[in-house]
Amino acid sequence: MNKISRKKKVFFLVIPILLILLLFGVYHSTINRNQDENQVRQTQFNNTHADFKTSYYIDSYNKNSSDDLKSQDLIYISDTTAPIYFEYAQVGSSTQVIMNLYYDYKPISFQVADKEYSDKYIFDIKDGNKVKIPVYIKQQAEKDDKKIHKLLVTFASAPDQNASQYSLPTDFFGINAVYDVVYTKNYKNEVFSENNSSDDIIPENNFSENLGDLILNTDYKNKEQNTNGGILKPPVSLEHKKGTPLKLMYNFEKMGSRECLLLITLNFSPVKINGSDYQIIQLDGEKGTANGQVEVNTSGQPGLYEVVGYIIHDPFRKQQSADNIIKNSYRFTLDLR
Description:
The protein has three helices and 23 strands. It is mainly beta. Strands 15, 17, 18, 19, 21, 22 and 23 form a seven-stranded mixed beta sheet that branches. A hairpin with a 2-residue loop joins β7 and β8. The termini are far apart.
């Protein structure tokens, strides 16, 4: 009997030890998995276009992403505590990069790994590398929210440098994209919007030719168009009085759109356009180039500020194709004095 009792004691003792080890193993595995999904990782980029000496790459997905959803540029969020991954690659230079996020075209705070950021995240990347960034957005879906929301992400290379350091302006300094976000698979084909249509504007001019994606300049009388039939690129540097509104001419190809959303940033933070967070431009015709004037706020502090604009065609329509890349303007430096 004593031997049997001892065996039982040993057996009963082994069971809780095994349970503890099992639970510890599960816990340890969960920690590793959470740490893995929370890591910002940089790896070698598999560049399939070796002929392009300078190029950028972008992608976004989450745990629900499938080939079908990705083909629609659609992100289905079933768990708001799980990350959305953004991937960015850069070929041709090693620089600092700034990432900005906009939810329904307004800047939002977000979390990368364990740190919070107010609308922008800055990182360094090596030439030929790809970075994978786990992002936790702060927006929470309302109960029974069945509308499509828009998630705009922009990546700009070398935010620590000024366009005024170079001889010519460039519009090739990063990559941007917009994604549809839904919180149920039974979503309505309706995009959320807070836009007040009474604030929309109509282009002052419609040029018959397609003259470029987006150019912001100060050619207020369109002398270049009237003289040579083109659009004047902005200078690399423009002096302006601090704290006073800056008038800019916009020029962009219509691309068959009914309306476009114009977003302008100063040092990679959005500024008011005609007193609004962004400006909706209703298009008169689907071909050619839209041209008109807007007014943006400037800082009251003197200094050098990078000016970048973004144009989103048909911003409140569900993504119609896999081409979700958003065009940015030529970048120039605003010298506030």
